[in-house]
Design goal:
The protein is an alpha/beta fold. It contains 12 helices and 21 strands. Strands 2-3-1-12 form a 4-stranded mixed β-sheet, covered by helices on one side. Strands 4-5-7-6 form a 4-stranded mixed β-sheet. Strand 10 and strand 11 form a beta hairpin. The two termini are 31 Å apart.
């Protein structure tokens, strides 16, 4: 939400106020990107003020650091400019496949060059075609990227999705937020249509992030009782399914207003879970299922192999090092629950979600879980260590 709110606020010209933003390394990368394109972003304790007289191609290379969201969403915006935009990032980002998005942008007239379909990217508009085809089977952010740019192309645009679209709820978040900022998008049978429009200034309040809330909620379900506030169960976030997963797994779950409480009852129940729309939950759900009574199957998410790391392989390696019985598959994994995890040292490979999942796994291990402290949680959840300490974790 924060990434999209920053970009749409800049596209609207503002002034816009973004309240309760997630301030992390990733969202700071998006702030830097829109600043390079002419936006003024002021940071305060509880909100951002954003305005822009007119956005333009940056006069410097935009370094997105480790933020794949920034890279993907800003690639589409870059195709609106007549001058070249250069986007790059860290070593992990330079391994992330961007081919489907670049092919879509080239197909509608933009000029794109890359290092074999990976960053650094050089993108130059203008977009000259009205019909656009995008493969949504690798990342929903490719679809969000072209959706966000489409109203500004200057002509009616038809967008056709090819392949099996993954993480559809993230596209729904984009569409919902575009409506808030005054954009009308028509959808029919996997096709989207936009007319020429302008984003309108809007003061947006960022809802709590279920993908981050999943870590304390699972901690409660495994080893105690945790209440997370500020959650909106009506929000289109797909990751709110963590609440349903915890309930089906036999954890106690209570929802009151914007608060969700999850507490440990007894042995976790094994589940078969389609992860196609909730890939960010994969590492923490694997932790939840690692001591379940029976065999769990997580499936439907081959795109996990193209995240910050190959998250299927890395989750398998991490949990095996803690004594779990887990086997990776092409699109997920099979987990035979064990009685308890073991103490061990894990390699999170700098992946923030892997590090946080391992920290929660320590609650069901027979001793300490040790890992490198590289601060990678700052990518998405800067308050994570303090939160875990408040829950009683050393």
């Amino acid at each position: 939400h924060t990434h999209r709110a920053i970009i749409m606020s800049a596209l609207s010209g503002g002034p816009c106020k973004v309240t309760s933003p997630l301030i992390s390394l990733d969202t700071k990368a998006t702030m830097d990107a829109v600043r390079a394109m002419g936006a003024d972003v002021k940071e305060y304790d509880d909100h951002l003020d954003i305005s822009a007289e007119k956005i333009h191609a940056p006069d410097r290379t935009v370094d997105v650091c480790n933020s794949g969201t920034t890279l993907r969403l800003m690639s589409g915006i870059s195709a609106l400019f007549d001058s070249e935009t250069v986007l790059t990032g860290d070593e992990s980002i330079r391994k992330r496949p961007m081919g489907p998005l670049l092919e879509a942008l080239e197909g509608c007239g933009a000029s794109c060059s890359s290092d074999g379909g990976r960053a650094p990217l050089r993108i130059k508009g203008p977009v000259t075609e009205s019909k656009l085809s995008i493969d949504g089977s690798t990342s929903s952010q490719f679809v969000s990227s072209v959706l966000m740019m489409s109203p500004l192309i200057g002509r009616p645009v038809d967008i056709t999705l090819t392949g099996k679209t993954v993480s559809r709820p993230y596209i729904d978040i984009t569409l919902s937020m575009m409506r808030r900022f005054g954009i009308t998008v028509k959808e029919n049978n996997g096709r989207f249509h936009t007319e020429p429009q302008r984003y309108r200034p809007y003061d947006y309040t960022v809802p709590a992030d279920f993908s981050s809330a999943a870590f304390p909620l699972v901690a409660g379900g495994l080893a105690g009782k945790v209440t997370v506030t500020g959650l909106d169960m009506d929000d289109p976030q797909g990751d709110k399914r963590i609440v349903d997963i915890l309930s089906k797994a036999g954890c106690g779950v209570t929802i009151r207003g914007d608060s969700v409480t999850c507490y440990h009852i007894g042995k976790i129940r094994a589940l078969d879970i389609d992860m196609s729309d909730i890939p960010d939950l994969f590492p923490i759900v694997c932790v939840l299922m690692s001591t379940a009574d029976g065999t769990s199957r997580l499936y439907g998410a081959p795109h996990l192999r193209f995240k910050e790391s190959d998250r299927i392989a890395l989750t398998e390696r991490m949990l095996k090092s803690l004594g779990a019985d887990i086997t990776g598959t092409e699109d997920g994994c099979v987990i035979n629950g064990v009685e308890r995890l073991k103490s061990g040292r894990i390699d999170h490979n700098g992946d923030h979600r892997m590090m946080m999942a391992a920290a929660v796994a320590s609650l069901i291990s027979d001793g300490p879980v040790t890992m490198e402290d590289d601060g990678c949680w700052n990518v998405s959840f800067p308050g994570f260590p303090d939160m875990m300490r408040k829950l009683g974790v050393e």
